[in-house]
Amino acid sequence: MHNDNTRLTQEIIRASGVNPSKCMKCGKCSATCPAYDEMEYHPHQFVYMVESGDLEPLMNSKSLYKCLSCFACIDRCPRGVEPAKLVEAVRFAVIRQQGADHMTPDDVPAKLNEDIPQQAIVSAFRKYRK
Amino acid sequence: MQRIGVFVCWCGSNIAGTVDVHTVAEALKSEPGVVFSTDYQYMCSQAGQDIIKNAIKEHNLTGIVVCSCSPRMHEATFRKTAAAAGINPYMVEIANIREQCSWVHKDMQTGTEKAIILGKAAVAKVNLNTPLTPGESPVTKRALVIGGGIAGIQTALDIADAGFPVDIVETKPTIGGKMAQLDKTFPTLDCAACILTPKMVDVAQNENIRIFSYSEVQEIKGFVGNFDVTIKKRARFVKEEICTGCGACVEKCPMKKIPNEFNLGMDNRHAIYIPFAQAVPKVATIDPNACNMLKKGKCGICSKVCSAGAIDYTQKDEFISEKYGAIVVATGFNPISMEKFDEYAYSQSKDVITSLEFERLTNAAGPTAGKLLRPSDLKHPHTIVFVQCVGSRCAACAEKGKEYCSKICCMYTAKHAMLVRDKYPDTEVYVFYIDVRTPGKNFDEFYRRAVEEYGVKYVKGMVGKVTPEGDKLKVQASDLIANKQLHIDADLVVLAAAIEPDKSARPLATMLTASMDTNDFFTEAHPKLRPVESPTAGVFLSGACQGPKDIPETVSQASAAASKVIGLLVKDKLTGNPCVASPNELMCNGCSTCERVCPYGAITYEDKEFMMPDRSKAIRRVAQVNPAVCQGCGACTVACMSGAMDLRGFMGSQIIAEVDAICK
Amino acid sequence: MQVNEYKPLIVAFCCNWCSYAGADLAGNNRLAYPADVKIIRVPCSCRVNPMFILRAFQRGADGVIICGCHPGDCHYTSGNYYTRRRMALLFSMLDYLGIERERTRLEWVSAAEGAKFAATMNDFVEKVTALGENKRLEDLRCKR
Prior knowledge:
The complex is a heterotrimer. Chain B is an alpha/beta fold.
């Protein structure tokens, strides 16, 4: 499978620190994912799409924002692939493409909302503050 | 000074085609020590060997250099020739002027020049050669088998059949191992007990076999052919020779709420117990942690009911010392602990069980007498979920799982699933798999039968979590082919736990100086060509202690190990390789570095008395190499800081002489 | 015309079980490599004392290569691991002394890799030839 976005793929792999070729396609990430039914592309597909450079449908998909960053997939992946980190890196790539929509500590209070898991904000802050 | 004869072989035109053999022979004539030099068409032929023999006699040669093919080809031949003519076979060196000269160079001049240099190097080495005699050591004609599972049983039976005495040391009160706990065996579905227990009886009745049950190896000293082993026979508080195994004591014992290890704690046993009906030896054992008489001095019922008078509350651990010629390790495996896999709720629900527990649940001699009832409420389960690769192929965290494939789980899970569907067709059976691995005779056919004939639902995907809810287990899993997340209300979840080497293997390996891999499996001497020998001479491997194995593989390895042991024990004396390390005691400073690098444990330290320069006497700690154990790798020679350690046949001075000859 | 006639002197230490057999296989398959390579047989690559290598350079060798079994395949289980560590240290020390890295090499050649043996030797001789004569460690008392 050849795609022109090799550089972007490499950038996502670099930024996430995830090696998608460690994935042995067991599907435990998707089995464990609480947001599975909300997603068009599921965690195991995320990993495979990054591995094969099939980024465009992924980046255009709402699935990216359905990930709760609960990290269950990271905890349970038997190969240490860490799919959630990959999701965050792809989200980040989308934001970068749209033009550096960064998050500063000052933005955090405005985003606090009882319905949003705090973890999601912490997670987003970690990625977008740079 | 040596008197060296040089013999240059033409090898027909193989050498003579690219190397001017006459010139080589002439050139080497003037090398120091050389008193005779000649060339001949085929040195390895009878006529060629006669030339060497005659020259040895005629010229009183003390060393031989043959410029010919690779030493891997004919070194042994020419050594024999030399020995036949009365000189030490290790006074022969080969200059490889065929494979490493005439065959790889095209030009006559370069070929000849290189051949001369190679010849010179060989001459330089022979000048420093010393006659070597291989050491001999006697062989104790008795074998020790550590572990009494199917691997140990098979090895012991085979060795005993060849007429050698064998001792089996087993930590449990009975031999039989894991196989005794199994219900049926794949892929033939014959019952494990039906094929194992006759073998256990054979062991008990074989005159050549002694069983040390409820015992462990305490200490191992010595080396191949001459191991000194101390065996600790734990007190079982029952006189083994007298006990008839009638079981009267067990029936009357008031302490009956002790978790039964044989049934993996799924039912209870008494404080005095016989693990199972076909145990060998069929002798009762008192659990000292549970017995009231041993703990508080009150009770003593068993000794009252024992008509044979076999109960002895004062029994002490006994230590037995015995000599062995060979040791077979057959310590086997255990399923790993499931406690750390929180997502499967193993610790939360009694109805999440391991496959070994499932074996006991379906076994006619098990806690439910063979009826498939779930542990929590003893109801018949209608939906069963099997999860494969739990802890296997798990590279993420070492404290949880194992990186390797446990090999046997795919097949036993297929067996379990098939047996459930066969006995209880109303049960829905799911198997979640990553890959189904079935390489083996009739294995894939077996797995396909489970799917096609028995209707087991194989789902490509993993179970993500199991949540106990009411009397159900909510199973959340992925189906990767349908790209769906499944939610199943299961009654029973069976985890195919990874297997790991028994915990006793690591300390045992240290005692044996046998090497292990990072997973604590024993390493074999060569992964392909010497799969049943440990790199430590005289130590052999049988069964799952070397890697995950099913029963047929275990039995073949067990028999292979036995044949290797028999091959060792039939010898009266072991002839070693004379090219072994030897220390110069005067130079040794006792630092122990060599001892640490030796992969075979051949080096020990000894306090010896030496005469000092001022004629006083002093005790110094010096290295000693056991030539029967040393394999001659030379690791110690380089590690030695004082230069005391040298390798016979490849001495430092000899190799330097070769370097000098080449660089001249 | 004789300008390019410089012939380096290469000493190769080969372990008996893998690399020496690999060299034999190169011979069996008639895979040519320069005659400048002279092989010394040792039981295991871990028998190669750094002294031997220093001696070779002292005596005017232009390059020294050590060949052993692949990691994990050592006939003596762990010998080549010792070699790997020792040579890592030695080579960096030699580099410090002015013996270029290209003049020393540690290579894993199995008994089945005759082609690799020949290719390795060809490459090594080429690299050393490009560097020219080694004079750094040469002991003038034992000049060729």
